[in-house]
Amino acid sequence: MKNLLYTLIISALMLAGAGQAQAQKKCDDGWKEKMMSEKIAFLTHEINITPEEAQAFWPVYNKIEKEKDEARHQAFKSHKAMSSALEEGKSEKELSALLDAYVAAKVRQDEVDNGATEIYKTVLPLEKVVKLYVAEEKFRRQYIHKLHKGSGEKR
């Protein structure tokens, strides 16, 4: 009887945890979509993109952002693998391979960032490309401030 009770309690906790994880995932997905919508509106306003420019720019921007996300994800994954390997006491050979993968991922991030500028210059005037970089940083800082303010942290 005790075992049955423990099994039921553990099962209930696992189901609640799975439900919580699923709810968190849905919340995270909605958060990113909302943030991207805000970012698009902010950039459009700050850069003053014309409708004609927008037609050429947004598909390019979205493609580059996807590449940046993939490169960041790979760098994060590589960093996590290095951290785990250190904790597990992996050999120098294994650590070296993980370090090489991490550095390659960071180089890929830089390549995407560097290549983006040249691509942007093909669809926007130079002044608007500069405004894009200024506006992206301005948005990033404002969003970080908004998140800190929303979390109740005191500065």
Notable traits:
mainly alpha, 4 helices, disordered N terminus
Q: Summed up, what is this model?
A:
By secondary structure, the chain is an all-alpha fold. It is built from four helices and no strands.
Number of beta strands: 0
Number of helices: 4
Uncertain stretches of 5 or more adjacent residues: 2-24
- Quote the average pLDDT: 83
Tell me the distance between the termini. Answer: 54 Å
Helix content: over 70%
The backbone outline, from C-alpha atoms, is: globular
Structure description:
This protein is mostly helical. Helix content is 91%, strand content 0%. It has four helices and no strands. Mean pLDDT is 83; it is low at 2-24.
Task: Give the helix/strand layout.
Elements: H1 2-47, H2 51-88, H3 92-123, H4 126-150
